[in-house]
Amino acid sequence: MHTQFIPKNSSTSRIEISRENLRHNLKVLAHKAGYGVRRMAVVKANAYGHGTELILPEISGECDWFGVASLEEGIEVRSMGIEIPVLVFAPVKAGLLDKYREFSLTATAGSIEEVQMVNSGTPFHLEFDTGMGRLGLYEEQIPEIISILDQKNLIPSGLMTHFSMADQPDSSYTKNQLKTWNRILDQLPDSWKKGLIHAANSGGLIHYPESRFSMVRHGIALYGYSPDGDESELKPVLSWKSEVVSCKFFRKGMRVSYEGAWTAEKDGWLIVIPAGYADGIPRQLSNKIELFADGRRIKQVGNVTMDYIMAFSDVPLVAGTEVELFGPNSMNANHWAEKSGTISYAILCGIHPKIERELV
Asked: Which of the following is catalytic: 32, 44, 235, 241?
């Protein structure tokens, strides 16, 4: 029995990554960070769904650090030949410190147990919880942390915290987090503060200049989305395209897809496109979005199915016609997020990794 070779470009859905828009966003963020402030590009979750293997080589010369969610992601970065420093956000696990050393990765210690684990062979940043309510040490634990690290003769190479509401300009909660963070820094040894100090995520970088310290971490903004939904400066990097696989005449009164959730109000053409919720199109978007094909917008109709979506057109579209699911001519991840009750992060990260990505 022979296995038939399937060409790589046989997929009927593809992702295009705009090199021009990516470079534009890097320039905007560099300007906002200001002179002398280092920049960490957060590339976790397959570079927010954009494709780590495409994004990293494009930006490694423009950023000082990479930030990843897990040890596995850090090792993946190193496997690509990337040499700039990499910070692993995940909590340190017992028995895996040798991997940080082997792959020259920087650990994050955010609990007393993790502080007790780190050793002289592993560079690490201390994470403090100033109001995020997730990971990180508390202010009242500072004396114990200092005692542990003094006994081990260790100095952290970085100090960090994370904002929970920095996407909101003039947030009193974020300002209180900043006050707490500055109070924490005042209590830490001067030798610790010679390393990197970072608090600003994309929202902090954009809205809170006083939060930039010696390094900023830009995630969603790098990919063209401001966390507050403002689309005035940044340019979305990712476009998602597919094609028409079927076009048939559709009469007024006929229903579409499961549950017959849409009924044609006039005669027209039913367009079938081979992308569905298995590919990352939320079912909650059913009957709520517009696509772009043959120079015009067309309405998506009927419930999104596992492998297909349908659209309605006043004119026929031949099989093979390109369809932009989202991009500059149709809707973007912010629009999809608003229509489906989520955030742009979830839309981008939800695009299935199986879909081929390419730089354009």
From this structure: 44
